Amino acid sequence: MEKTDDLRLNVSLLRRKVPNLTSAARQVGLRPATVSNLCTGKIPVGRAEVRTLVALASLADCSLDELIIRGEKMEMIETKIKTLDLFAPIAKGGTVGLVARPGMGQLVVLAELLYRFKNEPYKTILLMPQGDHQGLNDLVENVEIITNTIEETYERIANIGGDNDIIFVADRTHVITGGIQQLQENLQGIGIHSVTTFLVDLTGEVVDEDLPFGPLETLWQFDADLVARHRYPAVNPLSSTSSVLEGAHLDQEHFTIQQKAQKLLRRYRELRALVNVSGIERIPTSELQTYQRGERLEAYLTQSFYVAEPFTKKLGQSVSLQDTLNDVKEILNGTVDSKDVAELEFIGSIQLGEG
Q: Against a cut of 0.70, is the pTM above it?
């Protein structure tokens, strides 16, 4: 009997073969949300309906063997940003889509990543968006190469070659025109597979669409409630996801802690809605501990950014994935129940905060 936990969709093939996947999926009776969840791994391939996989293979004009990749371990790029690494890791060589309305901090997150990658062995490229957008200057200041067209981007990446890891940022207008798909196909054609692409929409229209960027390996959904309460980075730990999180690609400890943390935060959000309406006294005594630990975990997931230091007056923090896992485990098992919520906000690692 074949194992199903080491199967994943060939997302890059789907992206190349079916540029407008949303309408194509609807035409063959598939829900775009289901397709998106299969691409990011939120729905494991092993649990997908056969008819869904057959329909996707038909759309991509490929066989099931080409559509479904077996046993290939996906490598994550560790950002040392707690909530990203824990809940929706970057798949190296994949495509990340940021779903947010303007003002939710998506460009700050991208600028922070570019800043961090400057100290790593990555070449960073920004395909310059049209128009003026708040926060765009932060991207420009922290990127190594700026291009103005898809053609220029292709030339610069081709010159860098396949021996270097590349971080590439572009906005959604190039997805709509098909430029991103063509660029990725052309790069694959010359043997360059080392480009990790970040797609952003500066209009906010992505929030209302099912597959605004096409198939993705990683999806970061920004949360208006977290923004309103200044819980930055405001990336939703429940709706953001990554194909790296599929069981075969992830360290078992990471997978287990991530699942437990999501469960706690899901229940915490339900209880918080009750508190907002009726007050904390309405929470059953048996649920009070869950509420308080969820509150602490949410506070812990906040993080100061280096690029924001002039505005926040807080030093930027880097937290390794292993430290994040250790800290979250302590929050989950009650080791930090005695700490005030405020003590956990924007602290980096708990261990370092105690040191």
A: yes
| Cα four-point dihedral sign 25, 93, 218, 169 | negative
Domain 95-216, what fold?
Cobalt-precorrin-4 Transmethylase; domain 1 (3.40.1010)
Which residues neighbour 252 within 8 Å (Cβ) at sequence distance 6 or greater?
A: none
Q: Are 139 and 107 in contact (CB under 8 A)?
A: yes
Q: What pLDDT, on a 0 to 100 scale, did the predictor assign at position 186? A: 93
Residues of the chain with pLDDT under 50: 1-4, 355
Spatial separation of the C-alpha atoms in residues 205 and 263, rounded to whole Å = 29
Tokens of 219: 């999806």
Exposed / middle / buried, residue 128 (Cβ in 10 Å: 0-12, 13-18, 19+): middle
CA dist 333 and 336 (Å) reads: 8
Using the structure block, give the residue that is written with the tokens 């430029």. Answer: 179
Q: Quick check: 206 and 172 in contact, CB under 8 A? A: yes
Phi-psi region of 29 (alpha: psi -120 to 50; beta: other; left: phi over 0): left
What is the pLDDT, as a whole number, of residue 196? Answer: 96
CATH of range 252-354; options 1.10.540.10, 3.10.580.10, 1.10.1140.10, 1.10.3470.10: 1.10.1140.10
Class of domain 7-70: mainly alpha
Segments in the chain forming alpha helices (H) = 11-17, 21-27, 32-40, 50-59, 64-67, 82-87, 106-117, 136-142, 150-160, 173-176, 179-189, 224-228, 252-278, 285-300, 309-312, 321-333, 341-344, 350-354
Residues 231 and 342 sit within 8 Å (Cβ to Cβ): no
